Amino acid sequence: MMIGLLALSLGAPAKAIEIFSDQFDDGDVEPRWRVEYQPNTSGWDHDESVSQNSWLTVRDITSDSTALQWRTVDLIRKLPPIGDFAISWRISWDSPPLPTDVNHNMLIHLYDKSEHKIAWGGYIDHWANTVGAPHWSPCNSYCTPDYGAAGASGTADIVMARADETLTFSWSSSNGYSVTESLPVSAEALREIRLSIGHFDNGNAPSGIVEFGELGIDYITITGTIGVPELISELVEDVVALNLQRGIANSLDAKLQSALMALDDLNTNNDVAAINSLEAFIHHVDAQRGSHINDEDADSLIESATLAIAAINQQ
Predict the structure, then answer these.
(1) Does 60 share its domain with 205?
(2) Residue span of the structural domain in which 112 resides
(3) What is the pLDDT at residue 146?
(4) 207: pLDDT strictly greater than 80
(5) What is the pTM for the complete model shown?
(6) Are residue 193 and residue 145 in the same domain, yes or no?
(7) For the chain, how big is the Rg over CA atoms in Å?
(8) Are 300 and 240 part of one and the same domain?
(9) Which of 38, 49, 245, 263 has the highest count of CB atoms within 10 angstroms of its CB?
(10) What is the mean predicted confidence (pLDDT) over 107-124?
(11) Helix 228-241 vs helix 295-314: angle between axes, to the nearest 10 degrees?
C-alpha cells in the first residue's frame, strides 16, 4: 500500500524521531548500506577512518571500460515509511592542481516504495572546464543558482527537509556561500536513500585528462515521522518472508498483532501495551538469533521494532 504524508499523520500528530545516523567512523562502510556499482564501474578507492573526526573519503572510481560514461558507486539503504523528514549531511571536495580538470559529484537520491524519485540534491562538478556547485531538485531535472559557487575545494553542510509536500534544500559551505530553496515534491513516504558518488572521464579538460579529485562525507543523519501501524504491518510481512518454524513464526506474529490491536483505538493508555508487545517481540527475535534467525535479519527486525517504539513514545 502506498503511504503518503496525509496517511502517516492520521491520529495524534506525529513527532520526528531519529531514523538513523552514520558518523562514518567504523573503519569500513556499515553493512546496512548496500554498495552497488553502476554500469562501467568496477571499484572505488576509498577509506573510512576510526576516530572522532572521521570521514568516508573517496579518491577514485575505477572502470574496466574505456567508454566515456559516468562511473558511479551507490550506497543504498532501505528505510521505514517516513513522512516529513530532515536529512543532514556534511561533505568535502578537493580538486587536483588544475581544478578545471575535475568532473565528479556526491549526491543523495530519495525514493518512495515504488522506486519513484522524490528528490535529489548535493554537490556536482559536471563540466571539465568549471568548478562545482550545489544542485538540487525533485524528480529528474536539476537547478543551481550559480555554477562554480562551491569553489575548487571546501566543505559544506547540507539539509534536505520535507514538510507539507514542500522540499527545502539548504547549503552552507566553508567559502561563505549559502543558499536555501523550496520546491514542491511528492507526498509519498520516503523508503530508500542512495548516496551516490560519480566520476565522468571524458578527456575534454584543458590538460586532456579529467581527474576524480577527492570527495568525503563526514556524517549523515535522518530524522522524520513514521507511520507506526504501517511499520508494524511490514514487520508482520518480514516475519512471514523468513519462513520460520510454525511455533516461532506464530509467537512473533502474535506479539505484532497484539501491538497493532493496542494501537487501533483512541485510548492512549494502550500505547504502553503496544510498547510491551514490541519489546517482547524484540526479546524473542534476539533469543532466536544465530539459531533460527541470522544476525542480519535479526538486526533488521529489531531496528524496525525499536523505531516503532520510539515513534509511539513521541506521540
Answers:
(1) yes
(2) 5-225
(3) 73
(4) no
(5) 0.84
(6) yes
(7) 22
(8) yes
(9) 263
(10) 93
(11) 160
Same domain for 184 and 277 = no
> Is 244 found in the same domain as 151?
no
Mean residue pLDDT of the chain comes to: 84
Tens-place pLDDT, residues 17-30:
999 999 998 888 88
One domain, residues 35 and 137: yes
Instruction: Name the band, by pLDDT with cuts 50, 70 and 90, for residue 5.
Output: very low
Q: Are residues 248 and 194 both part of a single domain?
A: no
| Domain stop point among 173, 208, 225 | 225
Same domain for 176 and 241, yes or no, is no
How many other C-beta atoms can be found within 10 angstroms of the C-beta atom of residue 140?
A: 7
Q: Is residue 143 within 8 Å of residue 135, measured between CB atoms?
A: yes
